[in-house]
């Protein structure tokens, strides 16, 4: 019956400031990691629901309707931001390229490229938001829990030496309670590490798709046509369809 006194409640009542501080830090880290996991997970679900938005954009009859389709199917997504940035850069060139100014003499290819790169950089920063925190929690939580364990075992041994009773029933309880801190540290770290790896892979795939979309946008804004996909040994060629049209923008 005495073993029922051992556990988290007994550990908390018998622990000192250091153990309670470690437990509070691990609890805060756990809350933070699960908040990031849920928010980033919801974002990934929204991204999967808008997978066909890029195809819908290229199937639109005009640039304006294509941007509208992106806004409807993938609102606030990196793909919408990329298309909006490219369209804004193309419109800026159309309005100012005829003027005898420094901006009017700017190369179209370079200007569009810079605009698309800026959008991709901002999207990358947004996608990687919270990743550093998850990595930090996953790498440090086990060691914080281990520190609590070492500290708890030290004080348990001190108390045993003071009482002069080193029997198994007197040692197992305090040492077992101290080991709870290690388990708590692993409980915090494992979900953070798994989520970090999953989100890193998902971000890498999304950025690859975003880069491909940027390549198509760059080709279209600079030449008026997309680059056709390569099938087998067929060499790349410009598509004859000029979609979407900039005149409706």
From TrEMBL:
<keyword id="KW-0812">Transmembrane</keyword>
<comment type="similarity">
    <text>Belongs to the exbB/tolQ family.</text>
</comment>
<dbReference type="GO" id="GO:0017038">
    <property type="term" value="P:protein import"/>
</dbReference>
<feature type="transmembrane region" description="Helical">
    <location>
        <begin position="132"/>
        <end position="158"/>
    </location>
</feature>
<feature type="transmembrane region" description="Helical">
    <location>
        <begin position="178"/>
        <end position="199"/>
    </location>
</feature>
<keyword id="KW-0997">Cell inner membrane</keyword>
<dbReference type="InterPro" id="IPR050790">
    <property type="entry name" value="ExbB/TolQ_transport"/>
</dbReference>
<dbReference type="GO" id="GO:0005886">
    <property type="term" value="C:plasma membrane"/>
</dbReference>
<dbReference type="InterPro" id="IPR002898">
    <property type="entry name" value="MotA_ExbB_proton_chnl"/>
</dbReference>
<keyword id="KW-0472">Membrane</keyword>
<comment type="subunit">
    <text>The accessory proteins ExbB and ExbD seem to form a complex with TonB.</text>
</comment>
<keyword id="KW-0653">Protein transport</keyword>
<protein>
    <recommendedName>
        <fullName>Biopolymer transport protein ExbB</fullName>
    </recommendedName>
</protein>
<feature type="transmembrane region" description="Helical">
    <location>
        <begin position="17"/>
        <end position="38"/>
    </location>
</feature>
<dbReference type="Pfam" id="PF01618">
    <property type="entry name" value="MotA_ExbB"/>
</dbReference>
<comment type="function">
    <text>Involved in the TonB-dependent energy-dependent transport of various receptor-bound substrates. Protects ExbD from proteolytic degradation and functionally stabilizes TonB.</text>
</comment>
<keyword id="KW-1133">Transmembrane helix</keyword>
<feature type="domain" description="MotA/TolQ/ExbB proton channel">
    <location>
        <begin position="104"/>
        <end position="210"/>
    </location>
</feature>
<keyword id="KW-0813">Transport</keyword>
<keyword id="KW-1003">Cell membrane</keyword>
């Amino acid at each position: 019956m005495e073993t029922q006194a051992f556990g988290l409640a007994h550990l908390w009542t018998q622990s000192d400031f250091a153990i309670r501080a470690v437990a509070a830090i691990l609890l805060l880290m756990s809350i933070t990691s699960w908040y990031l996991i849920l928010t980033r997970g919801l974002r990934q679900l929204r991204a999967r629901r808008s997978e066909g938005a890029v195809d819908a954009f290229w199937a639109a009859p005009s640039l304006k309707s294509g941007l509208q389709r992106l806004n409807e199917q993938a609102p606030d997504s990196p793909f919408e931001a990329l298309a909006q940035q490219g369209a804004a850069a193309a419109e800026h060139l159309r309005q100012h390229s005829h003027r005898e100014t420094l901006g009017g003499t700017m190369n179209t290819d370079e200007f569009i490229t810079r605009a698309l790169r800026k959008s991709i950089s901002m999207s990358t920063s947004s996608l990687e938001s919270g990743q550093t925190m998850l990595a930090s929690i996953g790498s440090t939580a086990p060691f914080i829990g281990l520190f609590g364990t070492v500290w708890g075992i030290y004080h348990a041994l001190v108390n045993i030496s003071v009482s002069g009773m080193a029997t198994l029933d007197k040692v197992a309880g305090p040492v077992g309670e101290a080991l709870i801190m290690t388990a708590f540290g692993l409980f915090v770290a494992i979900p953070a590490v798994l989520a970090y790896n999953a989100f890193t892979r998902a971000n890498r795939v999304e950025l690859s798709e975003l880069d491909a979309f940027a390549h198509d946008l760059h080709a279209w804004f600079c030449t008026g046509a997309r680059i056709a996909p390569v099938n087998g040994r067929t060499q790349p060629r410009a598509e004859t369809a000029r979609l979407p049209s900039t005149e409706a923008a």
